[in-house]
Design goal:
It is a single chain. By secondary structure, the protein is mostly helical. It has one helix and no strands.
Length: 30
């Protein structure tokens, strides 16, 4: 149970980080 919760939290954080990076790159390019 604990491992799955940690994995889900890590995945969610990773997705948010990728989204923020994509937004930053889009703003810089545009």
């Amino acid at each position: 149970m604990t491992a799955s919760i940690i994995f889900v939290a890590f995945t969610a954080g990773l997705v948010l980080a990728v989204r923020s990076i994509l937004k930053a790159t889009r703003k810089s390019t545009n």
